[in-house]
Each structure stands twice: as C-alpha cells, then as structure tokens.
Amino acid sequence: MDLKTFTSAISQIAEEKGIPKEKVIEIIEMAIAAAYKKDYGVKGQIIRAKLNEETGEAKFSQIKIAVDSSMILSEEEIEELKTKKEKIIGAPEQIEEGEKKFRFNPEKHILMEEAKKIKPDIKPGEELEFPLETQADYGRIAAMTAKQVIIQRIREAEREAVFEEYKTKEGEVISGIVQRIEGRNIFFDLGKAIGILLPPEQIPGEFYRIGARLRLYVLKVEKDVKGTIILLSRAYPKFLSKLFEIEVPEVASKTVVIKSIARELGSRSKIAVHSEVEGIDPIGSMVGQKGTRVGVIIDELGGEKIDIIEWSEDPEKFIASALAPAKVLEVKISKTRNQAIAIVSEEQLSLAIGRDGQNVRLAAKLTGWKIDVRAPETAALEKEKKKEAKEQGEEKEEIKKPEEKAKEKKEKKAKEKKSKEAVAAKASEVKEKSQKRKKKQRKTNNRQLTTDNSTN
After folding, report:
1. b/e per residue, 8-42, with b = 16+ CB within 10 A?
2. Mean pLDDT, the chain, integer
3. Average pLDDT of 62-81?
4. pLDDT tens profile 415-431
5. Domains of the chain
6. Which DSSP state fits 54?
7. Where are the alpha helices (DSSP H) in 97-139?
8. Distance CA 116, CA 113 (A)
9. What does pTM read for this prediction?
10. CA–CA separation, 208 vs 219, rounded Å?
C-alpha cells in the first residue's frame, strides 16, 4: 500500500466531497489501522494509526484499557453466564462502573497494577498506548479491507457534511435547477444534494421546466438512511420577504423593515414597509430605480403583482394606504369590534374592493382589521337611517309610557267592574234561592192547615 498516494489524494477528496481535511485523514488512519490488523495484528487488539501528511509515513500503536478487579468477570461468573446463555460483554466502550463486567482480554485490557508502573496517575477506564513496528507491505485482503473502510467512511462523512451544510441554510433562499418531475413532485439539483418541492409548497399555476433555474426557500432539512432530505417551498410566507432581503440592501441591513405581508399565491401580494432611519423612503427602496428591484422579484414569482405600502401606527392611515391603488376619502374604526369602514368615491368603489373582493381581502389580512368599503352616498344614507331609527325609538319610548299607564288603568277598572258584577250576581242568586225556599215553606204550611181542617 503506497501511503504517499493516499496523502496526495487527501486534498482532492476533501475538496470534491466537501469534507474537512482532518476528517479525511482520520478516515485514512482508520483504514490503515484495519489493514495492519488484518495482516499483522491479533484478534481482539485495538490498533490505531497516525499518518504523517508530509512524509506519508504511518506510525502504529496498540491501545489497552486499564481495568481493576471489580470490572472483570471471575471464572465462576463466566461459567454462570454460560449456563444462563447470557452474552458476555467484551467491548471496552461498554465499561459501566458498578453495572457491567466483562471478560479480561490481555490484548485489549491491562490490570491497574501493571498500568500504574507505566503511568502512575492512571485511572480505571483510561487508555494506554504501546508502539508497534511499522510495516510497509500489505496483502491483497488487507488492501481490500482498507479500501472498503475508506469508501464507507467517506460516504458517511459526505452525508454528514451535506446534512450539516444544508441544515444551516434552513429558512434561507437558495438556487436550484429542475432535475426531474415525478407526478406532482418537483426535484431540484442544489449542487451537493437533491431537494424536493411538494405540491402544497408550489405556486398554483406555475409551470416547471427541466433545466430551469429557480429560487427556493429551504423549509426543512432531515436526515434519512439513504442521505439528506431537503424540503423546499415557493409558497411559504417568508419566501417573499427573503427575496426582498436579497434584492434590497436596505432590507438586509434592517434600515427598511417589512412589517407585514398578505399574499394570494400566484396572483397578488401586499407588503407593508417602514423605515427606521429618517430621510429614507421605504417604498422607493423596495421598488428601486424604474422598478428594477421589485421587477426582479415579480419575474421570479411568475408575474405575481406586488403592492408596496407604507406602514403606519395610525390604524386609519394604515387602512387607507392598504386599500391602494384606490383613494380612500375617510376611514372610521371601531376598536371594540376591530372593524373599519372605508369610504371611497363611487368611481373608486370597484377598485377598492378589487376583483372578487381581492383588494379589500388582502388589505384586511395586511392590517388585521375587518374592512367594509362603502360609497359616500351609501354611508350617508345608512347614517341617516340609523339617526331616524334612533329618534323613532326614543319617540316610541316616550309615547309608550303614557299608553301603558292608560292601558293598565283601563284593565284595572275592567277587573274591578267584573268583580263587582260577580258579587252582585252571587248576591242575587242567594236572594232568589231564599225566596224560593220561603215560598215552598209557605205552600207546605198551607197544605198542612187544609188537612187539619178536613179532619175536624
């Protein structure tokens, strides 16, 4: 194995694979150690290699772990474990004080008594390094072993490097080329990795052509068994603000701040901006000379219209600006209901509302207020109706009170009259019954008197 050939290839591998040079050297050292162990080592040995970049020479050493008697399984314990068919722990990495023991192996372990003779302050679990004779010739199997180790470790390191690189780009905008289209999923070549644009993250109606270069928002980066999965988006709300950060230096330097964004994908967007520095026009900064800055973003979004308005702390002024390009005459707000009435001229009414209510809908999203757009005549008529309704209500209230009193008095009199009539009817009934009883008694008495006279 020609070690000089490996050292000369280190820089090339590091550059091509995007792996740090130190990591490449570490991988080569592992491969050389594996090859050495294959030809000159003993089973159970821990061998490490140290590569000299300048000379291409490698130094080898055997590693032994310092252990005490409490870490080692006794013969009785080994027999007991064999009987129970339990696994015996042999890897030094699994040493856990007070929990697990392992079988002593003189090729990878050294007793504390012996270890202290070499290093007096050594502690259990620490490593001791013993130099080995350097070998230059290796067999075919050892060379294949080293090659496999290098290929496997390089791939692992490459995947890790790609993951770490794109993980730091989450929330950023990157450029990609359409590589292939599978169903509704679009795959982009990002340089060192492949990203996927799923249907929910696409702009409705946008056409993707193989070979086309587009800007994309890195939504999420995940690690998979096969490699790195990069989820992309062109529909995410922050995508628009990130595009302006790239094209407008004032936004990147925080001189101009994007306060809020309302967007209907592929159709129209509204952006509210504010300048933190006096003398800087936030709208002018966003638009650019002859619309060059905003024009680049509109082209990137496939012709999506963008309205840029100035943000204001005054809700009335902010709402009036949000309804641009319509000119608003007056804005009336109700903070309790979070509702606003925007009055515009009859000519501006359709412009303020927009096609299918798009303009007023975006303005409501941008400002956070419920907006009702009305013409002056409609507003005045409604105001008059409310005034009349209020006045009529007051009049009805005033009329209602004496009417109710008269009604109550009338009902009371009727009730009293009905009660008197009922009493009089009862008295008349009683009197009539009494008279009938007396009349009957008189007839009975007269009949008795006639009978007595006849007898005599």
Report:
1. eebeebbeebebeeebbbebbbbbbbbbbbbebbe
2. 80
3. 77
4. 777 777 776 776 677 67
5. 3-163 (3.30.1480.10), 169-233 (2.40.50.140), 249-311 (3.30.300.20)
6. T
7. 112-118
8. 6
9. 0.61
10. 19
